[in-house]
Design brief:
The chain has 431 residues and is an alpha+beta fold. The protein is built from 10 helices and 16 strands.
Amino acid sequence: MFVPAEEGAELAAFDSVYADIGDEQSIEQNLSTFSSHMTNIIRILERMTERSLILLDELGAGTDPAEGSALAIAILDHIHKRGARTVATTHYSELKAYAYNTPGIMNASMEFDIKTLRPTYRLVLGVPGRSNALAIAERLGLDKSIIEASRVQMSSEEQQVQSMIASLEENRLTAEAERLEAEKLHRQVKQLQQQLEEERRKFAQQRDRLLARAEKEAAEAVHKARQEAEEIIAELRRMAMEERASLKEHKFIAAKKRLEEAMPNLQPAVRDQAANRERAKEKIEPGDEVMVTTVGQKGHVIEAAGNDEFLVQIGILKMKVSARDLERIRPQKSQQTLQAGANVKRARNAPVRTELDLRGSTLDEALIEVDRFLDEALINNLGQVSIIHGKGTGVLRSGIHEFLRKHRHVKSFRLGEYGEGGSGITIAELK
């Protein structure tokens, strides 16, 4: 026998299987259908155990329906209390109601298609079956008046039971269709989720690649711009030393244009924008010493240029810089106001410096300060000045000496003697 169970189901093991199926009436033994059934059932009841499987076909049939249904209920109740597994078929509505109201007993039916008058061979659990006698007779051509008369003969309770069963069957079919539709939608949703997850993964990979490439390009652009800016500043410094007296304004403009073109046109990253917003909160005023982040050089703010920009002097170069590209180095104003070229105006009451301490400065910063210091010394008619550069590795000293050697207003220079600072200081004689 084929077992109506899903794959992976577990079945109980029975010590015996008893069945009362078919019509065993005997003329020879003078047994009616009911008697033959009862003979088998009595034998089953005597031999069964709680591990037996009992199959009963049309229990209580072959006698008065009222007595047959009552007897059938009593027999099923007895077997149920003994704990044996039972499968019983019936057309009695009373047995259907008994199964509905008794814990441990369940109605079931084999599905039947009224339209085609054919069974579907589907076992439906929880729903009692209908005899469908009137529907089958009507489909086979029995006179409708007879069908209607038979319905009148049915009791109201029987009609209610049949109506209830029909409603259950309809609801079951609707629920089955909705379940299938829900399973279909679930499969579609799962497929869409998988597709979205795959798209998200691809997007994340593409985003990471683009970010990595953008960061690499940005780093290369900034490095290139910084190198070019350093070359331009070095050239300006050379021009200032060699052509101090004849340096024309158009050369400053051309150098400034080259410096602005060297700046990379990059979209700032989110973290850079946040840093810029923080820097913008700091109020920058004329005279402040600032770091120009786009070129990596220090300068002094000359004046506000409008549109959130400032005119900044970097060495001998003046340029407009956005506030977001400036970092203030110290809040106090400078005592000097820088002008174009190498001219310096000293405040009326500012003290005259004869000594410049450059220890801790880079060579570029030191040369700018030396150039400014010498201009100030010339304005004040000083004949000798001292430049403290320290001993260290000698790089700062060598760079300053090279600068003094080419300076048109330096007559001579020497290292300090004992008591003056030795090799950590340079004494310059001015023309």
